[in-house]
Fold this sequence. Notes:
Blueprint: E1 11-12, H1 26-35, E2 40-43, H2 52-62, E3 65-76, E4 79-86, H3 93-103, H4 106-119, H5 125-132, H6 141-150, H7 157-163, H8 180-189, E5 193-196, H9 206-219, E6 223-228, H10 233-245, E7 249-253
Bound molecules: adenosine monophosphate (AMP) and manganese (II) ion (3 copies).
Amino acid sequence: MSIAVPTVIDFDLHCHSTASDGALAPAAVVARAAGQGVRVLALTDHDEVSGLDEARAAARAAGIAFVDGVEISVTWRGTTVHVVGLRIDPASAALLDGLASVKSGRVARAQRIAAELEGAGIPGTFDGALKYAENRSMVGRTHFARYLAEIGVVDEPKAAFRRFLVPGKPGYVPHEWARLEDAVGWICAAGGQAVLAHPGRYGLSAGAMDALLAAFRAAGGVAIEVVTGSHSPDQYRQYAAMAEQHDFLASRGSDFHAPDEGGADFGRLPPLAVHLRPVWRDWVL
Ligand code: AMP
Ligand code: MN
Ligand code: MN
Ligand code: MN
């Protein structure tokens, strides 16, 4: 007889539910994570904390540890950057006011995205995207991508982020999200730790990345994601080195959105390299 003994605890500190652009309800996200071996889970919906109560209760029922989280959309020097907040107080007025301000432009932006797509010969996408946005105030590009796949304009949602919805393609509408200093400030005011999400995704030069890390630290940021579903194995090594070199804590999370959309799933990514200082090093769970 053999039994499987996990050698490392599976911390997954980044994922999404129907409270933003995930496809599963918060309780279903937690059930999936627990079933796939995650033992400490943070739900980090975009600009939204409304899924946390349901997820926390589901985690208690499933016997796994739960971390209140959020992923805030930021515009830094014209680039969209995401900042994850971990162990936030979801009732913090500073955080809730801040998130309300980030969200306020989303529906108008979606109308402009739809107008652009209509100009490209694809009508009806505003209502189409809304069908996929359980939380209408959080309607975003993922919901458009799902609708474009539904009507057969693209084969799968992922493909919509190549032909549409990105800079230079129809359906891309530039948007001013939160300022970096503000987003990190809200997370700190809510007692949380600010983590720079998937730094490898921003396409920044080495110099710009250094400037981003400096601005992030000055604002109060403490960690960067190293192992994430958005990084390649080469990038795990690259950002592990960057975390060490710049003295940041390291985080890990799948960025799970949906079972069938080709993104990362729970329980699949490698652990953080042992020489890194994990963002959870001082946590008492
Ligand atoms: P929004 O906040 O409305 O601009 O939407 C951003 C979301 O779109 C991200 O959180 C991802 O879920 C999704 N997304 C962005 N780029 C891609 C991509 N290349 N492939 C798949 N999903 C993407
Ligand atoms: Mn997303
Ligand atoms: Mn992100
Ligand atoms: Mn995410």
